[in-house]
Amino acid sequence: MKNQLMVFSLFIIIQACSSSSFTYQEPAKTSDGLATATLETEGFNSEKIFELINLVRDGEFVGVHSVLISRNNKLLLEEYFAGYTMVSPHKLYSAGKSLASLIFGITVDEGLVSPELGLVEYFEPYYPVISNNDARKRRIKIKHLLTMSSGMNVGTFGDPKTDIAILMQKSFKPMKAFLDLEMISEPGTEHHYNDALPIMVANIQSQIIKESLTKYQNEQFYEPLGIDASNLLGALRPRDFLKVGLLVMNKGLWNGKRIVSEEWIEESTSSHIKPHSSDWFANGYGYYWWLNDFDYKGQKVKCIMAVGNGHQALYIIPELELIVVFTGGNMNQSVSWAQPHKMLQEYIIDALK
């Protein structure tokens, strides 16, 4: 009995040390343009947030590399794990598609292109003869590529035999390989996620602006946000990822400067189609933005999401003035999608007073 009491007492001591091991500090003020404040001043029950950080440290939430929380345009929490730091760039994977949507919107704002532009119409001067050229294919517009609802048979995602994004990499004429696909539904009626669609949009955008798309996005998007993306190759520092969320939250403005129009923010983050995803992941899809509802004190609040493989996630909840960034290393695992949702709902939204 004495030994059992000693073991139990040791367990209690270990648990107490674990729950109090996190020491909170207001995020560092730097020259990157982000304002900071504390969790308590912006309406959070900080103990709930501390519990989240300790659970990450203890491995209850796996593969997490960073957690950042912003409310009311202020960075309130910034924590890194697994050797990552404030200056460590992190690959965004498919979350980068949401940034591509914003950059495409700048080209739309300039009057150079429209989401209503026809796909076949645009490529006809280059490829006057394409296969499977039925009437439905001629109704495909750029907006259908932006919503992953082209109606084309893009194959099974990740399947090397059918995934058109993979097949395009092996083709001498990748654009024509896409255009030759057969139709399986009316454009705009079914959501079929595939990496080839943003590739087609980027190709069109690059030709229309008549310059390097990399140079264009640096000058028009990253540099105005104070982001040096020249050598990051699809990666961003979590603080920079948060800036993207603030840009969307503030309807295209960054620290008072217009980067993209309010009209594009509204159109691109509105639901245009219901994805074939389970309900916990997303119930709507915009122009490369996922959409879902979360619970806030018994009411549903709309969340705009950029999500990438491995636990890369940017959550924007305008109604709560809340932005959350997660990065992680859970590649090709279901926990990549379920875990950040749980962390957001149960430990961040539920921590709001």
- What is the CA-CA span between the terminal residues? 44 Å
CATH topology of the largest domain: Beta-lactamase
Supply the CATH architecture of the largest domain: 3-Layer(aba) Sandwich
- Trace the largest sheet across and list its strands: 1-3-2-12-11-10-9-8
Radius of gyration: 22 Å
CATH classification class of the largest domain = Alpha Beta
Number of strands: 12
Mean pLDDT across residues: 92
Tell me the helix content. 25-40%
Q: What class, by secondary structure content?
A: alpha+beta
Tell me what the structure shows.
This protein has 353 residues and is an alpha+beta fold. The chain folds into two domains: 32-92 and 236-351, Beta-lactamase (3-Layer(aba) Sandwich), CATH 3.40.710; 99-209, Methane Monooxygenase Hydroxylase, Chain G, domain 1, CATH 1.20.58. Helices cover 35% and strands 16% of the residues. It contains twelve helices and twelve strands. The strands form three sheets. An eight-stranded mixed sheet has the order 1-3-2-12-11-10-9-8, sandwiched between helices. It has a two-stranded antiparallel ribbon with strand order 4-5. A two-stranded antiparallel sheet has the order 6-7. A hairpin with a 2-residue loop joins strand 9 (290-296) and strand 10. Helix 3 packs parallel to helix 8 (196-209). It is globular.
Write the layout of secondary structure elements.
Blueprint: H1 2-19, E1 35-36, H2 46-57, E2 64-71, E3 74-80, E4 90-91, H3 96-109, H4 119-123, H5 142-146, H6 164-170, H7 174-179, H8 196-209, H9 213-222, E5 235-236, H10 238-249, E6 253-254, E7 257-258, H11 262-268, E8 284-285, E9 290-296, E10 299-308, E11 312-317, E12 322-328, H12 335-348
Parallel strand pairs: 1-3
Antiparallel strand pairs: 2-3, 2-12, 4-5, 6-7, 8-9, 9-10, 10-11, 11-12
Helix pairs in contact: 3-8
